[in-house]
Amino acid sequence: MIIVKDIVALFKSFKTDKKLLTPKEKQLAELKRLIWIYFWLLLLEGALRKWFLPFLSTPLLIVRDPVAMILLFKAQNAGYFKINAAVATAWGITALSLVMTMLVGHHNITIALYGARIMIVQFPVMFLIASIFTREDVLKMGEVVLWIAMPMTVLMGLQFYSPQTAWVNRGVGGDMEGAGFSGAMGYFRPPGTFSFTNGLVGFFGFVTAFVLYFWLEEKSRIPKWLLLAVSACLVAAIPLSISRTFLFQMIISVAFAVVIAIRNPKLTGRFVLAGLCVMVFVTLLGKTSFFQTGTEAFNSRLTSANDAEGGAEGVFVGRFLGGMLGGIIYNQKVPFFGYGLGLGTNAGAKLLTGETKFLFNAEVEWGRVLGEMGVLLGMIIVLTRIVVSFDMIFKSFTAIGKKNYLPWMLISFVFVNILQGQWSQPTAQGFGVLTGGLILAALKAKPKKVLARR
Fold it and tell me: How many Å apart are CA 316 and CA 35, to the nearest integer?
């Protein structure tokens, strides 16, 4: 009965009487609905491509783009979309690169538009969310994410223990070879409702940021039983994901939470309580064969991968610093205006060459940008993302002093994504755009009184 009561309360929080809304408020409500559609498509795009509409798997790859374009058009007409310096730079440089792609690049307009959509269509949505959503809307999305985390964990468990030929492991386009990615001990990294495992890792990183925030929130709107249940799901998700990225992401988010506790000693008790709960979950789950098998597979993956990459230091240098510097160092032979927009994406490379092999270092984001646009235009886009990401983290840190911890916890998840996340991959791009927008919305003035719903 408690669960039903909490679910009903959540649904009621979304309900509004349209008859009482002014025309302006109706416009705003419609824009918010479009953002929620964007959110749901991010979570379910893989499910549509794998299970329900496999024959449309290719067009569904960009299923959020039409929503983003409608959102931008309606927001512009309603006066909610204002072009800032970051968006103006992104549009101007991408438009110039589009022209150069057709003049001296690969000359394929379809591939060029596919590549251009990242900064022209998706990037502005980040700032648009900030102008439409309030802090309360961000909290509602966080609560919804917590509810989704439980069935997502169950699905992850089913995928982990099921053969790749099982329906839950079916790949994009109904591929019977499965969607799991190589893991350890014969087990595969599960993708959840996403097309690939990176989506599931992104989702649980998103969940982690909200869970830690709600543990630290002074007047939590989240029922304690739900917070405990989702915390247990996160503990279970670490070994079942067989993903070092998720483990590192969780460690980073915990470190960010520690910063909040240090700056506000009154929250130390809440932080310790959350830590004790995690220890209890680890102890209880550790006694089950379900958890033990996942842990063995995860440890095997951790050991073999760390040996290959030189341990945690090698992972940091190779993946983080290497992703930044390598994109510049190994693209020295790229033409001044690049090879052309879209050629650094899997879809673009396959359309042009028939296979997913790149002419430049497109495995890392900065390498893709510089390879497509060239050193001059590419570096301007890279610098734009650097400025946006560091501006967010600075403002989020400053907000801690105002007891607004939400942006700081969200930036713990998405900072690296905005800085150098592989936005050629639609799911990674989606989490970067959505979470970036939520951070900017959460930075708005915090209400003096927060109503708790327990």
Answer: 34
